[in-house]
Each structure stands twice: as structure tokens, then as C-alpha cells.
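Look over this entry.
=====
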Amino acid sequence: MQGRRWAAFFRRIFLALLLCLGMAWLADKIWPLPTTEGQLARIVLAEDGTPLWRFPDEQGIWRYPVKLNEVSPLYLQALLRLRRPLVLSSFGA
């Protein structure tokens, strides 16, 4: 008898979780979150891949998605040297 109660309890928990996941999926389909695609700079390319024109984002800033391995190590090193004193001074070190 006790085993049936536990089985019914876990079945209700499972169904409640399934219902919550279903509602979250449905809400995502009805009201999707905004993407960041519209906030990046755009490049118009020719058929051969050469750039024809570049457009900044809505704020006039040039933002391009890049991976860490596409960034020069010298740039990263310079960026860390520039930022490190600012971070350390903001924490009182």
C-alpha cells in the first residue's frame, strides 16, 4: 500500500514537471526572447566574398562576432596590460 502511494506521488511530480516544461516551450514559441543578431555590425559581400560596404550597429559602433582564436595574441596582451591597473585600483589594491 505504501509503495503505491509513493508511485502515485512520483507520477504526479513527473507530470507536473512535464507540464512546466511544456508550458515553458510553448511560451518560448509564442513570446521568443530577442536575439542579438540585429545589434551587430553588417558587412555586404560580393559573390566572391570581398567586402562591398560596411554598416555599424544602431549606436554607430562597429561590433563583429569573433572567436578567441581569431584575435591576435598581441591585442589580448595589450588589452590585459591596459585593463589590469584599472581593475586593481577599483578593488583598492
